Every structure is written in structure tokens, then in C-alpha cells.
Amino acid sequence: MLKKISVLLLAVGVILIPSGANASTHAKSLQNLGMNEIMFAQMMIPHHEQAISMSETALKKSRNQAILKLSNQIKSLQGTEKSQLAYWLKATDSSMTMDHDMQMSGMLTTKELASLKRLTGTQFDRTFLQLMIKHHQGAIEMLDLISDSRNAEAKALAKAIKSAQSKEITSMKLLLNKLK
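RE: above sequence
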């Protein structure tokens, strides 16, 4: 079931991410992108980058097949979403970063990330799951910025992120219970 959802979300992401050939027609879908959507993109890109980095660490350190599968899924899906968000910023001629520091819900500290990288075995797996659950919960909170968007693409992305990450949180909690 999770695999089918991932494939569907990936397919939706591929459809929503423009190639050079359809960028001008895609511009119509960018109508009504306002400051909330721009700020969301500027914050969610580094948020996704951190999840991708955590997943890459798990792919190197974990031996748990379910965690490896989950990490590949997170890396793929969030990479696609990150490209879509970057396109919004490029298409609207917006900065890729914010001019000021915003606290993003669920972002891990440098200390937490360094600690994770030092762990091995089941201790790594447990900590990875705990931190990724926290990270995903933060991303879901950040969706408040675009939940009332007038832009259809932003609304669709918010719905896709919430659905995928909520399902992943449920899966991670089940995995975590199995590891205890």
C-alpha cells in the first residue's frame, strides 16, 4: 500500500515539475503564488534537504531493511518535492533563501545530527526513527503556511506532503515499537 502511494506521489510530482519544454505552460499553474507560498518554499527546501541527508546517513549505517526502504522513499519523494519548490522560487524570481533566520518546526540541531552519525546498530535505527518522526511532524506543522493557498499546485503539494509524511510517521512508529 505504501509503495503504491509513493509511486502515485512520485508520478504526481513528475507531472507537476516542469521540464524546459513545458515551463511556459506551467507558468499558468504558478498564478496566485503569494508570499506564504514563497516563504514556505524557502523554508521547506532546507527542511527537505535535512531529511534527505538523514536518509543518506541511514542508507549507509542501517542494516534494517524496512529503514533502508523508508530512507530510499524519503530521499526520492522529498527530492522531487524540493525540485518543485525550487522551481516556484526560480519562476517567481524569488531568492532561494530567506533574508532572515526562521525557526523551522522539526529541524534537527547540529548536535542531534552529529550524535546520530556516531550511533550504530539498533541504537542508530531507534534514534533515526525518533528524529525522523520529529522532523516529519515539523513539516506537517509547516503546511499551515499554504493550507489556505489560492494556488492549486500549492494546495496539491500540501495535501501530498501531509498524506505521505503522515503515513511515514505511522510506519516509523510501528518500526520503532518493533525495535524496543
